[in-house]
Design a protein that fits this description.
Blueprint lengths: L1 E6 L9 H12 L4 E6 L17 E4 L2 E4 L1 H11 L9 H26 L9 H15 L10 H11 L1 H10 L9 H16 L10 H12 L3
Parallel strand pairs: 1-2
Antiparallel strand pairs: 1-3, 3-4
The protein binds glutathione.
Glutathione binds next to helix 1 and helix 2.
């Protein structure tokens, strides 16, 4: 059986965006898997992969790291699940993945950074604060005054996706697909860690997010 190594926090909360991309894909495509929680401080659990990040998907004869690589591996090895419908769908998914990881997640981090410690405890809490503060060269609370600005900008930035959802219901079309899984990771992260008002309750993207949760029984 496939084993998904995914980040876990306080009370076993799973909140990592790339881990959710893979997990929602496995759930929605009904691919059997078991999960292995990995805390920030449990690098020993993933030593076999010779790197320090999750998600990792372990299969009978090996493993794949990185959510985009895992999605591609699933597409290749679960041919009947039709993860990418064609090359256009693969390219659009790749665009969404790169846009998410390079541009959206860094903005979302500024919006929720000061709340992430609430979902961590013990050594994980110290690790998170130390590594992230080293990276941003300052306190994780330093973005707080800019939050309303970043929320406004984020809502504007994702307007093309809002339009697609208004037209089709889902990003992939009439049913959720790989493009929805990739975009979903952003919101699952924010809503797991933060009480911020990221999306207006009338926003079609907010309703899309709720529909994905319902469809996948999350
Ligand atoms: N590009 C990778 C990103 C993986 C990544 O950054 N994972 C984070 C969780 S969101 C992680 O494992 N962090 C562990 C750490 O910071 O020590 C992907 O798409 O899978």
């Amino acid at each position: 059986m496939l084993k998904l190594y995914e980040l876990s926090g306080k009370n076993d909360l799973r909140f990592s965006p790339p881990c959710w991309i893979v997990k929602i894909c496995l759930i929605h495509r009904q691919i059997n898997f078991e999960t292995e929680p990995v805390r920030f401080s449990e690098k020993n659990k993933i030593e076999f992969s010779n790197q320090r990040l999750v998600p990792i998907l372990k299969y009978q004869n090996g493993f794949v790291c990185d959510s985009w690589n895992i999605i591609n591996w699933l597409d290749k090895n679960y041919n009947d699940k039709k993860i990418f419908l064609n090359l256009s769908s693969k390219n659009f998914s790749n665009f969404l993945y790169l846009w998410t990881s390079r541009q959206l997640l860094p903005i979302l981090f500024k919006i929720i950074a000061h709340e992430i410690p609430n979902v961590l405890d013990g050594d994980d809490l110290d690790y998170f604060i130390k590594t992230r503060e080293d990276k941003i060269k300052g306190s994780i609370t330093k973005f707080i005054p800019e939050i309303p600005y970043h929320i406004r900008e984020f809502r504007k930035l994702i307007s093309p996706i809002r339009k697609i959802i208004e037209i089709n219901g889902f990003i992939s079309g009439k049913e959720p697909g790989v493009e929805d899984y990739i975009f979903f990771g952003n919101f699952k992260w924010v809503y797991s860690c933060s009480a911020c008002n990221l999306l207006d309750e009338y926003d079609p993207i907010y309703h899309w997010y709720r529909r994905i949760l319902e469809i996948t029984n999350l």
